[in-house]
Amino acid sequence: MAEAHQAVAFQFTVTPEGIDLQLSHQALTEIYLSGVRSWKKRIIRLKNSVITGVYPASPSSWLFVVIAILATMYTRSDPSMGLIAKIQEHLPVSQSMSSQCQALVSAVVFSTMLWLLLIFTMRLCLKQLLSYHRWMFEQHGKMSNTTKVWVALVRIFSGRKPLLYSYQASLPNLPLPAIKDTVKRYLESVRPLMDDEKYERMTQLAAEFESSLGNRLQWYLKLKALWAANYVSDWWEEYVYLRGRGPIMVNSNYYGMDFLHVTPTPIQAARAGNTIHGFFLYRRKLNKEELQPWLLRSAVPCCSYQFERMFDTCRIPGTLTDNVQHWQDSDHIAVYHRGRYFRLKVYQAGRLLCPREIEFQIQRILDDPSPPCKGEVHLGALTAGDRVPWANARTKYFSSGVNKRSLDCIEKAAFFVCLDDDEQGMMGDDPVASLDRYAKSLLHGKCYDRWFDKSFSVVYYKNGKTGVNGEHSWADAPVLAHLWETTLATDCFQLGYNTEGHCKGEVDTSLPRPQKLNWEIPPECEEQISQSMEVAQALADDVDFHVFVFRDFGKGKIKRCKVSPDAFIQMAIQLAYYRYRGTFCLTYEASMTRLFREGRTETVRSCTNESSAFVRALDGGEPADVCRRLFRAASEKHQNLYRLAMTGGGIDRHLFCLFIVSKYLGVDSPFLKEVLSEPWRLSTSQTAMQLQLFDLVNHPEYISCGGGLWTGQCSPPFFSLSVFVF
């Protein structure tokens, strides 16, 4: 109860002599400093809103335009061609204002209008420039004169020192492909998967769709593309992620791993202290928009809107659909350890706790002997099971009282932390098997010791290893990977540890202890927790996971052969699947569409006519020169498909949106129904490391196994492969 008393700012007692008022100076100081911190953040947000709002110009450029207009007026010339005089005529001013003052005000108004017009023109020009994508289809290392001029113009119109969200208003909207182009590419993608009879039937269905219902559905999509910034993203988030009623554990959530060969400290609390501090340093930069926008080829910006919900975010279950709730700047994290949940404040007197203080608080949790509340141990299994039972239980048992207060502490936390009693990593006599266990632990844990609804959960193991589990609806994996790798670099190269393995810095031992959350779980809720646990455990047991470390060569050698590393890996996957199953299958590879506003992903269909021809030739013992020629053709085809997907020419998101429109209109399309019911047997993805953060040439030990996911979009038996290329 000590923490509860400290939270009370004042107490009063009514006595016969009057009211006895007792003030808590510590609590009042906390309230004051919290208010100051909140107002500072509001001012920073306001300043950044102004800077971003006028980008690619700057607020100071307004003063330059005003001075320039006034200077030309001083030379008795009229740069406004009479507009300043017109403004002066209609200016609502008092009679006490002199004509000179009226002229000055009119000139300032005209200058402001001219400045805003220039901003609009520059932004429109930049938007048109960013709609040019021919550069992506040019041979790597060979840039045409047109592209060189284009790059120069983009850099001229991009302004200086952009903030994280500066480019958002200048990014083009995702283009809507023509029906005939999508249908043609679709038929080409399924040709190696169908015999002549099935392909002929699908061709007829496609022709009927293209000539009739497709045009009607396309018309509605054109309206949405004109009205919305992105005709795909909101429906993709809702129908693919939030409306799924099955477990998000394994099916949707993904994981990221620690360094493969390096453990900066074997002390669990110390590793948590440094990295938690690093996460909040990242959040501070994110709130101030000091993170650099992602630029392709140092010139082409990518959309940054997914960063907005990285922290202070939680997925809330619903009976029909979930929703993503985002709060502002939580000052605490939620921590799980041995069946108990804690609320750990990371700000004290308006300042962020130093790593050593966070380590001290984490150690307090590790040493806390208090037992879990009744029903608390497996509570997290509710987030791992089916969504409808969790939504019903949340409404019935967690909508009031102590349960609601404790649940709010978890859902409104900056992020979730799991303190695991196991040891993980590549270790022991069988390092391969240990990596498999490590990855499975990060993917689903014990099914109850993660809070899968949080935007991300960080896991700290007993031997100092760490990892992250991310919820998928709010953003795609590269966004969380940016946070994760930046934090790992901050942990090792910026913060560091002392000789004993503890965090650096001094400890304020008067810090209030972490608050243990209390629960009142009735027997009916415990039964629902047990049912969710059974569902989650069955799903976890069904996952066969293997992490394979390939050491023979990396992407550098592949590039020296003038082949795309991604295409090389995809061809290898196609060959392996064919040799294993004796056939080809529909293959999913994720590509990003963040060259467009609010872009997320598009599908690259990796199994093509060209890849099939190469695989058959190699497996059939054709001469090396024939196989080499077919491999080149297959790799170039794959790269072209990847570029089309990145530039808005993909197939699957367009077909998906046409299907959604058909459902809204209440019409059935045999073509769309068949397309959307085709099973994906292979789901693949690849992630590149932020090489500017790690010197892997001189320090190759800082390599990571990356991460991965087990996608629920595939149909069993299916294979999910995540490739980490370095």
TrEMBL record:
GO cellular component, one term: mitochondrial outer membrane
One annotated GO biological process: carnitine metabolic process
InterPro entries reported for this sequence: Carn_acyl_trans, CAT-like_dom_sf, Cho/carn_acyl_trans, Cho/carn_acyl_trans_2, CPT_N
UniProt-listed Enzyme Commission number(s): 2.3.1.21
Gene Ontology MF term list: carnitine O-palmitoyltransferase activity
Similarity annotation: Belongs to the carnitine/choline acetyltransferase family.
Entry protein name: carnitine O-palmitoyltransferase
Organism: Labrus bergylta
